[in-house]
């Protein structure tokens, strides 16, 4: 019993269904219209719902394999490798044998099942086996116990937790949209040179505006393109290096020397898990790090084919450090952080940095910092850059606000989840708690 509720094996409450893989040797089985998920896809889910997958199979591939299409909302869990990642299908799709789907029987709410699994993952991990890769089988569900409150209580619990997850997902989508707008503005001004081309082609007259640029800003742009080593660029602009745009900050910090202090730790895993730094004590951080001051951009030199550019959210009184796999880039005036962030994510820059790789191990290839700083970059005329930064910074600042709110909501959800599913906090108390916080 947990509180007043019994704990019941998952296998008594839901049917476990394993997926399958069509033969890779039959071309007609692949690149079809059926989304096909793997454990990698499930592990990469940024929130609750799995929507994006790397591969698709055909109806023939479905027919000639153990893969099954299951409906939107189905709960899936990874069974091999990174065991225990749980998601719900964001649309109907099939999946392979590295995942199980769990189909509720009578008396179990599907959404509650999702949260009950997430809230008891720690207990499940004791049931895995395997010397190289952790694995779970259908037998695992015979021993994996979850609380079973009455059905109305299950639905109420799932509703509360789902509302928090919905707010987090809304923030994530809003953040992506705002960032895309900032990057689109950078592309229009500094890649496609749209304002310059508008003048050249007679699509602009003084006092009028075009999409993406108020009329008064057109005076900042020339009306001609000239040749350069990077191709045509606006007249009066030049080609320089990244080192002329940013300063490389290399202030060492040894968190182990302050074992009881807390640090915001910007690591490669933290970036990959949602771009949220982890708050860790100095004794938990085992090597020297770079200090992360406010207003910088972090650029990974590790495996540069993986785009890791971090717009960090650091305040003056934060004690923030990052992995030495990151370069800490501070903009040099007149360039601002928005310009540096969009530049280091632009296609030309990404193409250049990927060409700097050294090292033979595929998992540990690096670009040398000195070579990165020497990469070519277009230098616009001075008045254009501050104008861009004013426009783009407001968009990017709002993305940080969305992430900040989501971090608070995630912490709240994670605190409530185990207590709600075990009956340690009742739904009415949780509702009151959230209303007091405007949620």
Sequence-ordered SSE layout with sheet pairings:
Elements (H helix, E strand, L loop, with lengths): L6 E3 H4 E5 L11 E8 L1 H5 L5 E2 L4 E3 L1 H5 L11 E4 L1 E2 L4 E4 L4 E2 L3 E6 L5 H10 L1 H5 L8 E2 L4 H4 L1 E3 L3 H40 L3 H7 L24 E2 L6 E2 L3 E4 L4 E4 L2 E2 L8 E5 L1 H5 L5 E4 L7 E3 L5 E4 L8 E3 L8 E3 L3 E6 L5 H8 L2 H8 L2 E2 L7 E2 L1 H5 L2 E4 L4 H38 L5 H10 L3
* Number of DSSP strand runs: 27
Low-confidence stretches: none
| Biggest sheet descriptor | 5 strands, mixed
Top-tier CATH class of the domain at 7-148: Alpha Beta
Give the CATH topology of the domain at 7-148.
Adenine-n6-DNA-methyltransferase TaqI, Chain A, domain 2
Distance between the termini: 31 Å
Task: Choose one word for the global shape.
Answer: globular
Helical stretch count?
14
* Broad structural category: alpha+beta
Supply Rg. 26 Å
Q: Helical residue percent?
A: 25-40%
**Can you say what the CATH homologous superfamily of the domain at 7-148 is?**
DNA methylase specificity domains
Q: Tell me which CATH architecture of the domain at 7-148 applies here.
A: Alpha-Beta Complex
Strand-residue proportion: 15-25%
Instruction: Determine the mean pLDDT.
Output: 91
How do the strands line up in the largest sheet? 2-10-6-8-4
């Amino acid at each position: 019993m947990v509180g007043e509720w019994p704990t019941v094996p998952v296998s008594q409450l839901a049917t476990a269904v394993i997926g399958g893989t069509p033969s890779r040797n039959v071309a007609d089985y692949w690149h079809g219209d059926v989304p096909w998920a793997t454990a990698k896809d499930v592990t990469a889910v940024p929130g609750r719902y799995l929507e994006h997958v790397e591969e698709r199979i055909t109806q023939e591939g479905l027919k000639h394999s153990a893969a099954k299409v299951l409906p939107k909302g189905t709960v899936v869990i990874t069974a091999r490798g990174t065991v225990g990642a749980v998601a719900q299908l964001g649309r109907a799709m099939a999946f392979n044998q590295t995942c199980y789907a769990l189909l509720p029987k009578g008396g179990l709410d599907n959404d509650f099942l999702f949260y009950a699994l997430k809230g008891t993952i720690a207990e499940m991990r004791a049931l895995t086996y395997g010397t190289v890769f952790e694995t779970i089988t259908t037998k695992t569900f015979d021993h994996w116990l979850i609380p079973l409150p009455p059905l109305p209580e299950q639905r109420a619990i799932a509703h509360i937790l789902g509302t928090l997850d919905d707010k987090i997902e809304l923030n994530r989508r809003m953040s992506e949209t705002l960032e895309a707008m900032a990057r689109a503005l950078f592309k229009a001004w500094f890649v496609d040179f749209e304002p310059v081309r508008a003048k050249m082609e007679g699509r602009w007259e003084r006092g009028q505006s075009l999409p993406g640029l108020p009329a008064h800003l057109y005076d900042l742009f020339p009306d001609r393109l000239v040749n350069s080593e990077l191709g045509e660029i606006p007249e009066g602009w030049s080609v320089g290096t990244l080192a002329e745009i940013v300063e490389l900050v290399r202030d060492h910090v040894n968190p182990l020397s302050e074992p009881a202090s807390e640090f915001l730790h910007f690591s490669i895993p933290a970036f990959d898990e949602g771009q949220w730094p982890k708050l860790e004590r100095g004794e938990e951080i085992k090597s020297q790090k770079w200090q992360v001051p406010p207003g910088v951009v972090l650029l990974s030199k590790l495996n540069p084919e993986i785009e890791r550019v971090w717009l960090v959210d650091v305040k003056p009184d934060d004690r923030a450090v990052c992995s030495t796999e990151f370069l800490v880039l501070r903009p040099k005036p007149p360039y601002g952080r928005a310009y540096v962030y969009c530049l280091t994510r632009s296609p030309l820059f990404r193409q250049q940095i990927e060409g700097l790789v050294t090292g033979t191990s595929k998992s540990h290839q690096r670009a040398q910092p000195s070579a990165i700083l020497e990469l070519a970059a277009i230098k616009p005329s001075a008045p254009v850059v501050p104008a861009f930064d004013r426009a783009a910074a407001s968009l990017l600042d709002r993305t940080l606000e969305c992430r900040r709110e989501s971090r608070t909501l995630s912490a709240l959800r994670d605190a409530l989840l185990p207590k709600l599913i075990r009956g340690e906090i009742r739904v009415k108390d949780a509702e009151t708690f959230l209303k007091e916080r405007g949620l």
